[in-house]
Amino acid sequence: MNDSVPVDYAAHLREHGLQVTAQRIAVMEAIVGHPHSSTEDITDVVRTKLGSVSRQAVYDTLGVFVEKHLARRIQPSGWTARYEARVGDNHHHLVCRGCDLMYDIDCAVGETPCLTADDDHGFVIDEAEVVYWGWCPTCRA
Amino acid sequence: MNDSVPVDYAAHLREHGLQVTAQRIAVMEAIVGHPHSSTEDITDVVRTKLGSVSRQAVYDTLGVFVEKHLARRIQPSGWTARYEARVGDNHHHLVCRGCDLMYDIDCAVGETPCLTADDDHGFVIDEAEVVYWGWCPTCRA
DNA sequence: TCAAACTCTTGACTGAGTCCGGAATCGGCC
DNA sequence: GGCCGATTCCGGACTCAGTCAAGAGTTTGA
Fold first, then answer.
1. Measured between alpha carbons, how far is residue B98 from residues A29, A59, A123, B136 in Å?
2. How distant is the alpha carbon of residue B16 from its chain centre?
3. In chain A, which residues from 61 to 90 place their CB closer than 7 Å to nucleic acid strand C?
């Protein structure tokens, strides 16, 4: 599905200096298999696989993944946090105002024009996050 | 300070089909005078002016303002909602990861390149929201 | 195998935001 | 100016995502 994400999650975790546990692998699988899922959705997926996990373990795991750049956290206005395993590129998101739909969008012109602000106020800018808001074909009808 | 925002808030409210009340004028003044404020900050400012307002009235008012395009709601990941009275243009925001600082940023190239996604999945896109993340001079030190 | 370090569980807690019903205020009309 | 319907405001209870803390359990490297 996505070549950039290794299927050997255990090795992937170890490479990033993390201990390997069943929960972590299950969480990794969940965000790879269900990109843009909420914490609750991820918890459900993990529970389906492992039987039970505490909510806290999922929060911890996701927090660690984000910290170690194994996952990215996105949170459009008014939504709860979502997670995805696609990291390291400059892709953005397309969100429907009517439903839960969210798509990945590659940068408009193949470069990173949005990363350059006209006046940075002395900031060191390390990320430009772009969210496109609109209506999906279904909600428009 | 900003010519695009009329000082006659009562007329401004009426133009948008809203009843004029002391609370609404005070909320309007608050978001014009303190852009990027949280609901709590706005409530404080309004209370300073009027003595007391319910939290609910502020939420309602801000909700109506956003609905009638008198205000814009912004909510960077991990932050609570912020409001600003600058609407109708294509400006974006620069946010410090270390503190509460947030600046307005005009579109990088003066046009609206970010409004065009390469693949819109059939969506009707009406807004592109850009948040630049970084570190302000103070937090960097 | 063993100990140290790390991870998971449980349960209580915080705080932003929402819901709802009744009271107060606004604005058009007589 | 006074009245009345519609809108707005208030207070309080409630929801829900997310956090904190402490102890039990698991992983890892020697």
1. 31, 22, 11, 8
2. 17
3. 61, 64
Interatomic CA–C1' length for residue A57 and nucleotide C5, angstroms? 17
Nearest residue to A36 (alpha-carbon basis) of A80, A68, A88, A78: A80
Residue A77's Cα: distance from chain center in Å? Answer: 15
Token look-up 């910290």 returns A67
Structure tokens at A111: 């470069």
Q: What is the pLDDT of residues B74-133, one digit of tens each?
A: 999 989 999 999 887 778 899 999 888 899 887 654 455 555 656 678 888 888 888 989
Q: What is the largest CA-CA distance in chain A?
A: 51
Strand C nucleotides, any atom under 7 Å to a protein CB: 6-11, 15-20, 25-27
Residues B65, B60: Cα–Cα separation, whole Å = 9
Q: What's this model's pTM, rounded to 2 decimal places? A: 0.86
Q: How many CB pairs under 8 A join A and B?
A: 131
Strand partners, A103: A94
* Minimum-distance nucleotide, CA of B21 to C1': C26
Query: Which residues sit opposite A105 in a β-bridge?
Result: A92
